[in-house]
Specification:
By secondary structure, the protein is mostly helical. Helix content is 41%, strand content 2%.
């Protein structure tokens, strides 16, 4: 700003009078509006600084603030993403212990326990559910896991290769029944495998009963278990119970190496260790004399120790399932012969391992009661009254009144 009298430039634009001649300086122009709100928040500069110095300092401070905002975050700190960068995920509201389980299903946990039990059954000091039971259990485990993953909506690619017939609701219901039956099979010897198998069975049964049996459109609508308490189906139920109990009874004796003991086997103790000049006559082994047997490694075996002991168990359980089927449910014609087939398979299995022991006789006795129901079912005599054809109505409106028989009533 210059003095109008002497033309001397003023060092400070805020001076009202010229420092050289004392003339009045022209009015100071109004300051332009602030460019940003950040400058309005800055502390005021001291009055001793010139105005051009204040503007230069403000511009340098703005540059420093912009550089600080665009600089990378310090090492060790995580940059916060923009709000729109977060994915909208459906929060899990189920039990916390199922949060990391595939499908968030307790049935998958139960399948894991059952599969681990099958692995332990390979070891010699654990009981086994048999070859047939193992194969059926593996198929049921794969089908149940595939069904649960598909129901959750996050099924992997291998689920598409599972046949659709294994994803029907009847398969989990049959798998539950299979696990319960094989649990009875494992009760022949208590060890670590029994609680593991039982825990997996309970986890699967609690969830699948609610999903595939108890719901209005579930499998349970086709069955009436209370019908097994009526005659003659109660005979089948009692016969199956007797057969299962008979499998826990003695079915003969075996040697320590697993070979069966003949009834007239010679006594090894009477010949072994004798001097060569002593002639020992061969005698029969006393079956219950510890003096001669020396503990001989002779042990009593139950029906579960026989090969394929799970076959009659599963066949008889299937017979009870068909017996509990409601009469109004449509069924193929060949199902009437299935009970006879189940009894025949069980009879052949029992005759293959029969010995002079209490177990086989009790089993055959119970099988006789089951066979009575199976024969009635095959002959069609076990059909309920609701399925019988209706009798002809004695009243026919098309019949001629003159030909009607006289009722003997005279008005």
């Amino acid at each position: 700003m210059q003095c109008p009298e002497c033309g001397e430039s003023a060092a400070d634009v805020r001076l009202s009078y010229c420092e050289n001649c004392g003339a009045k300086m022209p009015a100071r122009p109004a300051a332009p509006p602030r460019a940003s709100s950040a400058r309005s928040n800055r502390p005021s500069r001291p009055m001793t600084e010139p105005s051009y110095a204040a503007e230069i300092l403000d511009e340098e401070e703005d540059a420093r603030q912009q550089g600080r905002a665009g600089a990378a975050p310090p090492r060790g700190s995580k940059a916060q993403p923009a709000p729109e960068a977060y994915e909208e995920e459906d929060p899990y509201t189920g039990p916390r212990w199922l949060k990391d389980v595939p499908g968030h299903s307790q049935s998958v946990v139960g399948v894991g326990l059952v599969a681990f039990s099958l692995v332990l059954s390979i070891l010699p000091f654990f009981p086994s559910v048999g070859v047939l039971g193992t194969l059926l259990t593996l198929v049921g485990c794969v089908a149940l896991v595939a069904r649960e993953l598909r129901r959750d909506g996050n099924a992997p690619g291998w689920v598409d290769h599972v046949p659709l017939v294994l994803l029907r609701p009847e398969v989990p219901a049959a798998f539950m029944l299979l696990l319960v039956a094989l649990t009875v099979r494992l009760l022949s010897g208590f060890n670590l495998l029994v609680p593991l198998w039982a825990a997996g069975t309970v986890l699967i049964a609690l969830e699948q009963y609610r999903l595939v049996i108890a719901e209005p459109d579930g499998v349970g609508r086709d069955f009436d278990p209370r019908s097994l308490l009526g005659f003659p189906r109660v005979l089948a139920l009692a016969g199956v119970v007797v057969c299962v109990v008979a499998l826990f009874l003695p079915w003969g004796k075996v040697m320590a190496d697993g070979s069966s003991l003949p009834d007239n086997a010679p006594v090894p103790g009477s010949v072994r260790g004798a001097p060569p000049e002593l002639r020992v006559l061969p005698t029969t082994r006393p079956s219950d004399d510890s003096l001669y047997s020396l503990g001989g490694g002779v042990t009593s075996r139950s029906g579960w120790d026989l090969p394929l002991s799970e076959l009659p168990l599963l066949a008889l359980v299937a017979l009870l399932v068909l017996a509990a089927l409601r009469p109004d449910v449509e069924r193929p014609a060949f199902l009437r012969w299935v009970p006879v087939g189940a009894v025949s398979v069980s009879l052949l299995w029992a005759l293959a391992g029969v010995k002079l022991a209490v177990g086989p006789f009790v089993f055959l006795f119970g099988l006789g009661a089951v066979g009575f129901h199976a024969v009635r079912q095959a002959l069609g005599r076990d059909e309920p009254q609701g399925l019988l054809p209706p009798e002809d109505d004695p009243y026919d409106p098309d019949q001629d009144p003159e030909t009607e028989p006289d009722s003997g009533y005279r008005g």
